[in-house]
Amino acid sequence: MTTAIIGLFENADIANKVVGELTKSGFKKDAIEILQNVAVSKISSRLVEAGYEKDKAESYAKAMQQGGALIVAEAPDDKAEEALSTMRKFQALSPEALLEKISKRMLEFRDVDTGAPVVDALYAPAKIFKGKHLEHAPDLLIGFKPGYRSSWQTALGAVPRQTVIPNTEAWVGDHCIASHFVPGVLLSYRKSKLADPQLADLTVTLLEEFSAPRADGMIGRNIY
Q1: Alpha carbons 50 and 43: distance in angstroms, whole number
Q2: What's the average model confidence in pLDDT over 117-134?
Q3: Most CB atoms within 10 A, among 91, 119, 167, 185?
Q4: How many whole angstroms from its chain centre is CA 92?
Q5: CA 223/CA 193 separation, integer angstroms
Q6: What integer pLDDT is reported at residue 55 of this predicted model?
Q7: Contact, 125 vs 200, CB < 8 A?
Q8: Residues 33 and 89 in one domain
């Protein structure tokens, strides 16, 4: 009998070293699989097939959309602990730990030409928003520094060779920079009781003005 052992690693280089160590210890290479840059559904299905609960499988799959490489090793029952020990030696990560590492690196990233920081803030939808559609949200939203944004090629699914490239097009309707760099104007004949009214507050305020119930998952506050 075999047991499916999984390990989440920061990148493919580390994952390949783990595979090398496992095969050196006698594990069959064709029983070890590296999953990277594949759809969430494929990763999730593979882990469910390996015996993991759906929620856990989906958490690993979603984390990998931000980066990382997942190893699934079919180990003989009497060697399962050895496979786990090998993965731990190479610092196998939880989905949360992987996101934390990615967040730290993004905040530390600098423009190679100017030395300026590129990312100002990272937002975790699971900690900010509520509602039944939260499962479809990304794990992280990037708030860029002014002067930076996702490239036009990135928006089309491409990956430019350069990490930072000059934007020669107009900056029109751009909402990629961190939200606190994009102030709005609230015009009202009544004074707001909130020092920092936000778009989410307008919906709730309008509903309550007309004595209408707010929907589940709304996070706004009444401005007045």
Answers
A1: 11
A2: 87
A3: 119
A4: 18
A5: 6
A6: 81
A7: no
A8: yes
Are residues 173 and 200 both part of a single domain? no
Residue 73, classed as helix, strand or coil, is strand
- Structure-block tokens of residue 101: 């590492």
Verdict on whether the full-model pTM lies above 0.90 = no
Same domain, 152 and 179: yes
Q: Is residue 101 part of a domain?
A: no
| CATH number for position 53 | 3.30.70
Give just the sign of the alpha carbon dihedral 102, 104, 110, 111: positive
- The mean pLDDT of 117-131, rounded to a whole number, is 89
Question: What tens digit of pLDDT does each residue of 26-37 get?
Answer: 888 888 988 887
- Which residue in the block uniquely carries the two structure tokens 């990304």? 138
Structural domain containing residue 41: 2-94
Q: Is 202's pLDDT higher than 90?
A: yes
191 & 171 share domain = no
Claim to verify: residue 26 and residue 60 sit in the same structural domain: yes
Residue 100 placed within a domain: no
Residues contacting residue 55 through CB under 8 Å, at least 6 positions apart: none
What is the enclosing helix (H) or strand (E) of 84?
Answer: helix 80-89
